[in-house]
Amino acid sequence: MDERARRWRLVLGGAAEGALQGADAGMDAALAALYERGAGLGASAPRVARWLGDIREYFPSTVVHVMQKDAIERLNLTRLLLEPEMLEAVEPDVHLVGTLLSLNRVMPDKARESARAVVRKVVAELEARLERRTRAAVTGALDRSARTHRPRRAADIDWNRTIKANLKNYLPERNTVVPSRLVGYGRRQQAVQREVVLCIDQSGSMAASVVYASVFGAVLASMRSLRTSLVVFDTAVVDLTDQLHDPVEVLFGTQLGGGTDINRAIAYCQGLVTRPSDTIFLLISDLYEGGVREEMLRRVAAMTDAGVQVIVLLALSDEGTPQYDHDNAAALAQMGVPAFACTPDAFPELMAAAIERRSYDQRPMAAPGRHP
């Protein structure tokens, strides 16, 4: 069987002509069990565990993650994930963490430690991928926002940037640059320079966003120049700020699913703001409001009028454009509040832009207390 025929045979399954041998036969059986071209996986935990092992052997990890997600959704394997042996067989990823968190309240004790191990592994991988870039972007933005064109002392002058800004004033005959303006550092501050409030919608559709936001919250909370708060909500509001030292604890403090009361969550977060002009409020939500919409919009307007930098992330995940409430997004846009989806890799630059009060595409953001 040539390569083209082999690929079509794997795509079409057992209904196509031609027998497969060796690893190809194993791949075909794994695909058939999931995509209902054969007998299926059934409800046997040992059989499902073997299947999970097979797909890890035959397919790359990116494909394994897709097949696991499909298996959970198509074959209703959620109940089996409460078995420790099942959790040990799966390939951990963000979607699996979201599924486990949705089962948090019904998870038996014997499965809880296995579930924590899965979540801990995913969180560690995300921190390794995202922490360094986030720290670098935020620190650079804070340094740039602290620069001044009137340094008080010679020690406060940033000579590299001063020379770059004055290259047009180079005098060849003297082999020197005559600076017409100085670029300097503001007085370095040991105190908090910005307050960040993360307000996270924990409805079921936001599972991946909850995972990423919790990891970013832990990274931001570890930076002395920021004071970071993290609040999750459905129809109730839970402040998890005191658990930010451990994003795994934050995640197990969430409860995915249920209704949504954005207005109540924003009301709580308003009470956390002590320095409005130095505060970044990130609402991570699909904006489907189950509370009082008009009051929610009034609260956002009040925050921006006070000088708070308000940004709405419709999703913080690797997926494409999410489902969201277009009317609420449009109403926020009229206030000058950006609402858009953001990938985890783009989040560090988003934070840098917010600190410097410029938009994500480099245009200046609205000044405090003004609506464009």
From TrEMBL:
Protein name: VWA domain-containing protein
Pfam family, one: VWA_CoxE
Domain VWFA residue range list: 193-352
InterPro entries according to UniProt: LolB (IPR050458), Uncharacterised_CoxE (IPR008912), VWF_A (IPR002035), vWFA_dom_sf (IPR036465)
Superkingdom to which the source organism belongs: Bacteria
Annotated transmembrane regions: none
